[in-house]
Amino acid sequence: MADKPRNGKVTVVGAGFYGSTTALRLAEYDIFETVVLTDIVEGKPEGLALDMNQSRPIEGFETRVVGVGGGSYEGTENSDVVVITAGVPRKPGMSRMDLIETNASIVREVAEKVAAASLDAVLIVVSNPLDEMTALAQLASGFPKHRVMGQAGMLDTARFTNFVAEEAGVPVSSVRTLTLGSHGDTMVPVPSRCTVDGKPLTEVLAADRIDHLVDRTRNGGAEVVALLKTGSAYFAPSAAAARMARAVMEDSGEVMPVCAWVDGEYGISGVYLGVEAEIGREGVRKVVEGDLSESELAALRDAAEAVRAKQADIADL
Ligand code: APR
């Protein structure tokens, strides 16, 4: 419908696989006035935007996509939300941490420029290694911590849900799962908070099968990278990032697993970590503390310490 209200501007930095699919998902929601897609490469975002706009009569959305190449930020001014996807993806055999130096210099520069153009934006970081790049984007932008968050928990949780649904032979809509902690080796899948049709996961699947799915979730990104040979996952990741941007724009108050600044919750302070948070127009409204088993809480605290050690060096990157 051409006459429905569309508000706001969301910018996606990086017009690679992750950024372009995120931009298209955002445009197809048909709730934004403008989606801006930028890249350091000249022509790529402009061409993708042209192509996306030409899909509008078929898919029936009116949001306009604007492509800005050559590393320019012209046209991104006063964005409400900025999704940072700029950076290099993994190759088979690489860990997310292997990307840290290359992506740190990219994310630092991008966050500084984004902040200069859009003083009041909420930043959603997806570049890897995620927890460190989120911390760096906050530092480089100078934004308050609640206005900078990272996308990982929604994706990891979606992967876990998909694996459980396939194993149990039920629709994905019957399954609730949760992962916390880091987007990496110290990811903390939380079986005690997982259900199938409202029943505890432990009553539906054998313990060794749950362990297997937890393991597969923890390595969910690497499994895709190994199959693709070049590049990393982007369909599920972009779905997660786009939902977060939408929750901000709609001031929805949805509780989502995201990488957020933790300040006292779970007895953890002063670190960007995967937790559940209420998302609204100002970014993270609050971190929501859920019930965890003793071992899950211990694993979350271990994850926090591991991430804290890595985030401590961020300023020097
Ligand atoms: N400014 C803007 N865009 C940049 C910059 C920069 N300084 N540096 C690189 N880019 C762009 C590249 O030109 C490329 O188009 O970022 C894009 C990255 O796209 P892909 O190589 O397709 O990578 P993608 O799969 O999109 O992943 C991007 O998300 O999941 C993470 O680990 C992944 O860090 C990686 C990021």
Account of the 3D structure:
By secondary structure, the chain is of the alpha/beta class. The protein folds into two domains: 9-150, Rossmann fold (3-Layer(aba) Sandwich); 153-314, L-2-Hydroxyisocaproate Dehydrogenase, Chain A, domain 2 (Alpha-Beta Complex). 42% of the residues lie in helices and 21% in strands. The strands form four sheets. It has a six-stranded parallel sheet with strand order 3-2-1-4-5-6, sandwiched between helices. Strands 7-10-11 form a three-stranded antiparallel sheet. Helix 1 links the parallel strand 1 and strand 2 (34-38). Helix 6 crosses helix 10 (235-249). It is globular and about 50 Å long. It starts with 8 loop residues before the first strand and ends in a 5-residue tail after the last helix. The mean pLDDT is 96. The structure holds adenosine-5-diphosphoribose. Adenosine-5-diphosphoribose is lined by residues 13-19, 39-41, 71, 85-90, 99, 103, 106, 109-110, 126-128, 231-232, 234, 237.
